[in-house]
Design brief:
This protein is α/β, with parallel strands linked by helices. 35% of the residues lie in helices and 18% in strands. The N and C termini lie far apart (64 Å). 44% of the residues are buried.
């Protein structure tokens, strides 16, 4: 076979797991007698042969698409391979238009596919273009299953992340090695956990190996810790693994598999990794896997490394502290995990071969071009997928599989989104910020400007997530939304915490006032302690939100059978402590009133005290 790899990344030296896996896969196919060519991105244009693979690199100042098109015409491949290193489909759309060659798509990262909750840039048109391939191969069962579930495309998993050879690498593990090492420290890989651990273990030397994701902000954070040493990335990872006692893989995105996990375990080095995406498969049943709050939202922009900017949720670092303490203080335990790691990885190495993938290529060639089967998707599955996507818009961080004792839905003040609540962390409580239309990833949707319409949309969206114990927290406008929503729930919340909001009875028989002018609205909101320039940038959203709350009319009804806690700022110019006492008349259960230092936005300067109060006031 003549095989052409479209590699819109650095092919050699390989500093990323996907890059190295592509390279070793091409070399294994060449070793089986196939004619293999690679067109790759590089700093400069070049041509060289590496282990019987012809490599053509295209410099950044050259036209990559034009060069790839020329190779397509000249090489006339039987198989074109593309992968998720080309998320913009710069080369992929040329490949699928090839009149003869079959196209095989290697899925190595779910962040880079254009569909589903892991994707940083969902795109229906790009998803449709993927339907023109002849086969989709996932690097793990997780990736293959994700593709089938969220796109309806057929995907299979066969080994495409091979090792350097079938010969076992050296056993480099030693309890006396100095470093706790992380490769590619950046936001999506969990740099915050790594930095936090370095702060908790100042006596331990840590090592960071920056690669494709580490940006200037990350470098500054790493250099701020005196016990972190920066090591240069190398193609031969033995250079830094022989100095490593424990490898950390604290990824907070859905890892496809994570090559470094298996590489470290093969060398007898224990790995502490997050239980995200396909890492569980890479760990091969060996401790330690630690749950994390995975990324659920990306900003519509890239950093200087062209990596999507993630909104990283807060993490509980204590399980990581416990694991690292044991592996760095208990020599016998370290030795047991090191031996278990190497044994499991060596057993896995014996099963690795390019032959299943090679057979897949032969099968593809025997079928008509463009005949990849679609994964069967039932009507009920389609309805469920559509419902999950719709609900995720309202609750972007919600984890349906969470085992938390309580789920706390948090409603924002006027003009706000979810960011304030994303930084909250309460033991045993899943924090679920509610994302209303008109802000953050829902900025293109019109904001609601009346409460009844908002509640009509919220009730069916939140109902599927209230079968387990839950509670509501709302600040200012959010307090009114949370209260009225609690009144409508058949299965009521276990607690209602209202913040910086007068008791609704003050709105009895309310006669709505005319909308203020822009200047009047800005002045009113500025008096609450918000920067005027920031207010001006969100004026349309603020006008809708304030109209919603200004026109809210309280209708008397039976008291809630739900405990209510009323929080407020001691110096709030608009909401006095006496204004909040009336909340006690709206419940037949317990009532608590708390006061914190600060004004209307006291939440911003009292986070620890507020989280401690919530820990006390939320039901056990």
């Amino acid at each position: 076979m003549r095989i052409l790899l479209a590699h819109n990344s650095i092919y050699y030296p390989s500093h990323g797991g996907g890059d190295k896996s592509n390279r070793l896969l091409m070399e294994a196919l060449a070793a089986h007698g196939h004619q293999v060519r690679v067109v790759a991105r590089a700093a400069s244009s070049d041509r060289f042969s590496l282990n019987n693979v012809d490599v053509f690199t295209i410099g950044t100042d050259a036209n990559l698409r034009a060069s790839f098109a020329a190779h397509l015409a000249e090489f006339d491949p039987d198989i074109i391979m593309t992968s998720t290193d080309d998320p913009a489909q710069l080369l992929f759309d040329l490949a699928v238009r090839s009149p003869r060659a079959r196209v095989v798509f290697l899925a190595r990262a779910t962040i880079a596919v254009p569909f589903g909750p892991d994707s940083s840039t969902p795109n229906r048109a790009k998803t449709e273009l993927l339907r023109g391939v002849d086969a989709i191969v996932g690097v793990s069962e997780y990736v293959a299953g994700y593709i089938r579930q969220w796109s309806g495309l057929h995907a299979v998993h066969v080994p495409i992340s091979l090792m350097d050879s079938a010969t076992p690498p050296p056993d480099l593990g030693s309890f006396d090695s100095p470093f706790v090492t992380m490769v590619n420290p950046c936001a999506v890989k969990g740099i915050d956990i790594f930095i936090g651990l370095a702060g908790r273990f100042p006596h331990l030397p840590f090592a960071a190996v920056p690669t494709w994701g580490t940006n200037a902000h990350d470098f500054a954070a790493l250099r701020s810790r005196p016990n972190i040493t920066l090591l240069d990335p190398v193609d031969n990872i033995d250079d830094f693994l022989r100095r490593t006692r424990v490898v950390l893989v604290p990824s907070v995105w859905a890892e496809a598999r994570s090559r470094i996990v298996v590489e470290a375990m093969l060398r007898g080095i224990p790995v502490i990794a997050s239980d995200a995406g396909g890492i569980r498969e890479a760990k091969l049943g060996v401790p330690y896997l630690i749950p994390v709050n995975v990324i659920r939202h990306y900003q519509p922009s890239l950093d200087e490394n062209l990596v999507p900017i993630a909104e990283t949720p807060p993490q509980d670092i204590e399980p990581w502290v416990d694991a690292l303490s044991r592996l760095t203080e208990d020599r016998a335990h370290w030795q047991a995990i090191a031996a278990q790691s190497r044994s499991a990885a060596l057993g896995y190495l014996k099963t690795l071969s390019v032959e299943p993938f090679e057979q897949l290529l032969f099968d593809v060639l025997r079928k008509p071009k463009g005949s990849a089967p679609a994964a069967p998707v039932s009507d009920s599955r389609k309805r469920l997928a559509a419902l999950l996507l719709k609900q995720r818009a309202w609750f972007p961080t919600l984890n349906p599989a969470s085992r938390a004792r309580l789920r706390l839905f948090c409603f924002p003040h006027a003009g706000a989104g979810t960011l304030t609540y994303r930084a909250w962390l309460i033991d045993g409580v899943e924090i679920c910020p509610v994302l209303l239309p008109g802000r953050e990833s829902r900025a293109s949707e019109p904001a609601f400007d009346n409460l009844p319409d908002l509640l009509a949309a919220l009730v069916p969206a939140i109902r599927p997530h209230t079968s387990q114990p839950y509670a509501f927290f709302g600040h200012s406008m959010g307090a009114g939304i949370a209260f009225e929503l609690a009144r409508k729930m058949e299965n009521p919340p276990r607690a209602l915490i209202v913040s910086a909001a007068r008791a609704p009875q003050y709105r009895l028989n309310l006669q709505p006032r005319p909308d203020p002018s822009d200047e009047e609205l800005l002045a009113q909101l500025s008096n609450l302690g918000t920067d005027r320039e920031l207010l001006e940038t969100t004026l349309p959203l603020l006008r809708a939100d304030t109209r919603l709350y200004r026109n809210y009319r309280f209708e008397p009804g039976p008291p809630l059978e739900v405990p209510i806690a009323a929080y407020g700022g001691a110096d709030d110019p608009n909401v006095q402590p006496a204004d909040m006492t009336g909340w006690k008349d709206l419940t037949n259960a317990r009532f608590i009133q708390r006061e914190f230092p600060g004004g209307h936005f006291y939440l911003q300067s009292n986070r620890d005290a507020i989280l401690q109060a919530l820990q006390t006031d939320l039901p056990r």
